[in-house]
Amino acid sequence: MLAKSIMDFVFPTTAAITVYSEPYLDRINKEYVRILTLDGMPEGALKPFVKPINMQPLSPFHNRSIYDDPFQCTYALIKQANHRMPFFQERDMPSLIAFLKQNGYNIDMDMFKIVNKLGTQQNTVTGSQKKLLFTFI
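Request: output the structure for the sequence above.
Response:
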């Protein structure tokens, strides 16, 4: 099969999903928590546990750029809808990793080690720092 473009040949597309931890303002409980987010919607058994959410700026002093998409969503991992804190947090990582392994996902910890050396990334919409945790396929 021929690649569609040189980019497909050099950088073949994969269904890799990256897991982040980023601050989230829980407006109901009036507290900041770090929730687990994804950079895309996964396929397979994890899909029902992912919810697109609109991340609001953490501070009233952070203004969105005119280039930011006002409808940009972040994919958050959810436990269950009726839970006090429905989102997965960093403390839930062992359960998430076990779930991924049991359901046939491959966790790329080598990529985590490389990228984690780079530190955090700035979320342009919320102004917060998000931390890369790992990637899976």
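The beta strands are 17-26, 31-38, 50-53, 74-77, 107-108, 120-122, 129-136.
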